[in-house]
Specification:
alpha+beta; Aminopeptidase; Alpha-Beta Plaits; 2 domains; eight-stranded mixed beta sheet; five-stranded antiparallel beta sheet; elongated; binds zinc ion
Length: 374
């Protein structure tokens, strides 16, 4: 099977895609390039109308290829956007097969290795006239901003019930079937300003109240499946003023959605109590950024992946991720799926890299899944 993957062509595609700027919400140019390529591969292509809702300058891209085999359709999905620094990316291919950026941007293997891999798999199918089941491809916008493109997506545009999302670090064979809820929150402690020298007793110290509350919190690992963090704090106006306001921002993650909700509530209550004790008030808001899911080990989407691994001679490595992906959105809209390793390491940093070898294996995994006959 591997012989059919055209290594040079795949590399060319990857390098070309990396050279296109596609920061979150600015995926238009990438979208046009992918439209062109998918059409050339014989798929029917549609850009959806989610741009005004998602805030991106283009919609999600959906492409379909009717099956030559009578099978259930399957969705192959990745995202068009890359994290910052995202402008002026350039892929540098090293002698040892590593591919890095020029050092001052991300590489964008997250998630362009997926996009390149899926395109190569489709190309091989077309060239070789290889039988395949019905294929649906979805390239989303704004994934890096808690899956805004996926959230706005109309699921009725898809026939598939099963999804493979290539958007995970690690070697081919690795897959995540479980991801957490992530809830972000902001709490403002509202104290009272007063001159810190002349009349400190007339003030209510918002920063001190916030400090007390934070001191009472359990941060880090709250239990075996939950974490909590205060990541930002700001407050006060000058060294000689009792701070009137202090704003803290943080997040809670848990594989249990209910636990994430409860933990967030507990944090807000802790601030409320500390504020009450000092005669202050708080204003709190929280937002469910993504919702947890867990795909059953016995589900067809897992079984098919395990068979594909065996066909490729790799050991399936089913685990979990403590980060989000578009699958958080789709799984909570009734789809079953896995997030698959997609030739990306050190993601979300300028030292992000991939390798020619892993790129080929991602394409091979996509090809294997698309052309399996069972
Ligand atoms: Zn990603």
């Amino acid at each position: 099977m591997n012989k059919q993957i055209n290594r040079e062509r795949l590399l060319d595609t990857f390098v070309k895609l990396v050279s296109i700027d596609s920061p979150s919400y600015k995926e238009r140019e990438m979208c046009e390039e992918l439209k062109k390529r998918l059409l050339a591969l014989g798929l029917s292509v549609e850009e959806d109308d989610t741009a005004p809702v998602s805030g991106s300058n283009c919609g999600n891209l959906i492409a379909t290829l009717p099956g030559t085999l009578e099978m259930e359709p399957v969705l192959y999905c990745g995202h068009m956007d890359t994290v910052s620094p995202a402008y002026g990316k350039r892929a540098v291919i090293h002698d040892d097969g590593r591919i890095t950026s020029a050092g001052d941007t991300v590489l964008g293997a997250d998630d362009l290795s997926c996009v390149a891999g899926i395109l190569e798999a489709l190309q091989v199918i077309k060239e070789g006239n290889i039988s395949h089941g019905p294929i649906e491809v979805l390239f989303t916008t704004g994934e890096e901003v808690y899956g805004t493109g996926a959230s706005a997506f109309d699921m009725t545009k898809l026939q598939s019930k099963d999804a493979y999302i290539f958007d995970l670090t690690g070697q081919t064979g690795r897959a995540a079937r479980k991801a957490p809820s992530i809830i972000s929150f902001q709490i403002e402690v509202k104290g009272k300003a007063s001159h810190a020298g002349f009349a400190p007793e007339k003030g209510i110290h918002a920063v001190q109240i916030a400090s007390k509350a934070i001191g009472r919190l359990q941060l880090g690992h709250v239990d075996e499946e939950t974490t909590a963090n205060i990541g930002l704090i700001s407050g006060g106006a000058a060294t000689n003023i009792v701070p009137e306001s202090c704003v803290v921002r943080g997040e809670v993650r848990s594989y249990s959605h209910q636990k994430a909700l409860d933990e967030t509530e507990l944090i807000i209550e802790t601030f409320e109590k500390a504020a009450r004790e000092a005669g202050a008030e708080i204003a709190a808001e929280s937002k469910v950024c993504i919702k947890a899911y867990e795909t059953d080990l016995g589900s067809p989407v897992v079984k098919r992946f395990e068979s594909a691994c065996r066909m490729m001679g790799v050991e399936p490595d089913l685990g979990e991720t403590f980060g989000g992906s578009d699958l958080n959105v789709f799984a909570n809209k009734g789809m079953e799926g896995l997030v698959l390793a997609s030739a990306m390491e050190n993601c979300h940093s300028c030292s992000e890299y991939t390798t020619v070898e892993e790129l080929c294996r991602v394409a091979e995994m996509a090809l294997t899944l698309m052309t399996m006959t069972e």
